[in-house]
Amino acid sequence: MHNKPISIFGAGVVVGIVIFLNMQVCAQSINASLIKSSIIGPSGDSSSAAAQAVPQNWELPPAMTVKDVGTRTYRFTITYNTTNMRGEMLRRQRFTADYTRGLPGNKVRWDNVTEEDADGATAPYGTPQPRDFMDRFTYVNNMTDTFNPDFFKQFPATAVLERNLVWDTGMFETFGQDHLGQLKLNEPYSSGYEGAMKLPGEGTFRNRQIILEYIGRSQRNGEDCALISYQAFFNPLEIKNGGMEMTGRSDYWGLIWVSLTTAQVEYATLNETVTAEMKLPGQSAIQNINVLRSGDFELISQK
Fold this sequence. Notes:
The chain has helices spanning 8-23, 49-52, 160-177, and strands at 72-83, 89-103, 107-119, 129-130, 137-140, 189-190, 195-199, 203-207, 211-220, 223-241, 244-259, 265-279, 287-302. It has 303 residues and is mostly beta strands.
């Protein structure tokens, strides 16, 4: 899929903030994802087993086709934190969802989507609440289609963070699979996805520059993988919705493990922070908002 997935993640988070502050329902997570596998690099420690397995050829294949043999199901867990500018936690929110690809007709499906909420920094999460409208949500795996006005027609208007699950997953697959032939070891690569995106009825979000970089080899799920980093900083956003105005920026980054045999994503992480000034309807005072989130995308089964 050769589309331009401008940071929907950031845009979606911002709209999520709007929902939180207008309806007292938003959330996030300040805990960064832990990278659980070791990177194999040319300068690796020769005393480790990983270093002894250092590949002789560090070039990636010039062209790789994603091999879908059967289905693969991933568990996507993403947490949101809302804090004030002093770092005091206001609210936390966690989404968990299962994503299956490799279905007939190049289709993918979402199942077991739940949301958990907690106030403050230490309160336990509440009982997971099923997002029934997303259960068995199935579509052709084409990122461009997800920007169509009626794509999420079965979703409630306030289900912005649930939309992020779809866009984030599309980002992992696009960043991880579409540029293997252009990436060189330790050389930053401009992905070409820069530009502004209009959010119908909401505002605009602009990626200033998205950088991909092949930073080494690793292993996940028994697969030799290319480890790819991505980052995009200082991305301006402007939201106008229902009398609310918000201006700020998004910064996001993460890692993607891609199989060198199948070009499948074996694991991925996502981190993002949004800082913005917001003015609510009927109020002249400007509020400063800080939102952080982190996510882990891991393979749980394949058939």
